[in-house]
Amino acid sequence: MGGASSEKTATGYAAHDDSGVLTLYTYKLRQTGPEDVLIKVLFCGICHTDIHQIKNHLGMSKYPMVPGHEVVGEVVEVGPEVTRFHAGDIVGAGVIVGCCRNCGPCKSNIEQYCNKRVWSYNDVYPDGQPTQGGFSSAMTVDQKFVVKIPSGMAAEQAAPLLCAGLTVYSPLKHFGLTGSGLRGGILGLGGVGHMGVKIAKAMGHEVTVISSSDRKREEAVEHLGADKYLVSSDEAAMAAAADGLDYIIDTVPVVHPLEPYLSLLKVDGKIIMMGVINQPMQFITPMIMLGRKSITGSFIGSMAEAEEMLEFCEKKGLSSMIEIVQFDRINEALQRLERNDVRYRFVVDVAAGSNASAASSND
Ligand SMILES: NC(=O)C1=CN([C@@H]2O[C@H](COP(=O)(O)OP(=O)(O)OC[C@H]3O[C@@H](n4cnc5c(N)ncnc54)[C@H](OP(=O)(O)O)[C@@H]3O)[C@@H](O)[C@H]2O)C=CC1
Ligand SMILES: O=C/C=C/c1ccc(O)c(O)c1
Ligand SMILES: [Zn+2]
Ligand SMILES: [Zn+2]
After folding, report:
1. How far, in Å, is the centroid of ligand 1 from the Cα of 48?
2. Which residues are CB-neighbours of 65 under 8 A, at least 6 positions away?
3. Ligand 2 nearest atom to the CA of residue 300, by list position
4. pLDDT by residue (tens digit) across 57-107?
5. How far is CA 185 from each of CA 172, 193, 270, rounded to the nearest angstrom?
6. What is the 3-state secondary structure (H, E, C) of 310-349?
7. Do 150 and 311 touch, CB atoms closer than 8 A?
8. What residue stretches are annotated with the Enoyl reductase (ER) domain (predicted)?
9. Which residue owns the Cα nearest ligand 2 atom 2?
């Protein structure tokens, strides 16, 4: 590996079109700037958003695209103005790698809501260079968007916390839903949903999983600690559970009716939409008026919340439930995730499958 100014390359798995298939791709890494951290990727979780982006569900995909935004790696080089990280540190990076630093959200430390946010992939830096994500041997990330992984946490277990964990922690904090004794619902028991169960339980909530099938019942109760399990098509069970929940975290990634879930909320209850759904959704207004209910949304979390969430998980001994995937089996994992066949997050073992050392330098 060369010095901070040498040109480096990384090798990752990239989508080249919307077919869903990733193939190996070598590209130029952004130069390690004064505030940048060069990370050798160790593990990267696979989020359903990666499928949305690879398959162009949002109509904004640019190829070649190296996805992956639940990144854990080892710092191998830092720019001269980096104060918070050193070579050898185990760190994480997530969905956002840049923001304007001047707007209202940036000044309020909720930079995920900056309109000039830079996404970790499928985006460009202000200089026009494409961003590429964590299904790759290396990433260069501004120190503002890097977090330290607590020393007691296994790197592979930490990866899903950087998107899935943060995505549930942030709205629970923001909407004041942290008190013990609250009754929470988790709609859709996938990567985000399973972290929802774990984090809500750790906050002392009574947690109901609402799933599309009975297949995950035993695991949800026995392994994740859910208190109740509802199958959304079981009309009698849904009716019996009406008016019982303070909030529902809705992680379903496709269009679905909202009325059955609004019915489960108490007066003043909230449904917090997480799924990225690029089609209109419907509800009739009495469903929210007659109960002062809210339909709201939330987008990942801030870097400050990411640090807080990692501390919370460390303190409570929380980790994710994962299936490790070899780097060259990434396409199989993507197909299984799309078929709803994962318990509960795939994490790609990037370092074991990267021939390239972190980043190759050509000087
Ligand atoms: N707002 C934000 O900041 C973030 C948004 N997201 C978005 O949240 C959504 C969920 O992400 P993630 O948890 O990674 O996804 P997963 O695929 O891991 O989980 C989604 C769950 O939804 C349920 N489901 C119902 N219908 C379908 C369907 N047709 N296809 C697949 N799943 C279905 C399944 O649960 P069950 O079997 O229990 O029914 C499934 O496990 C995605 O749209 C993702 O883009 C993700 C991270 C951050
Ligand atoms: O997985 C994290 C990203 C979530 C996301 C939310 C909203 C949106 O428009 C996206 O493109 C991604
Ligand atoms: Zn994600
Ligand atoms: Zn901003």
Report:
1. 6
2. 14, 15, 53, 54, 121, 122, 132, 133
3. 2
4. 999 999 999 999 999 999 999 999 999 999 999 999 999 999 999 999 999
5. 12, 10, 10
6. HHHHHHHCCCCCEEEEEHHHHHHHHHHHHCCCCCCEEEEE
7. yes
8. 20-348
9. 49
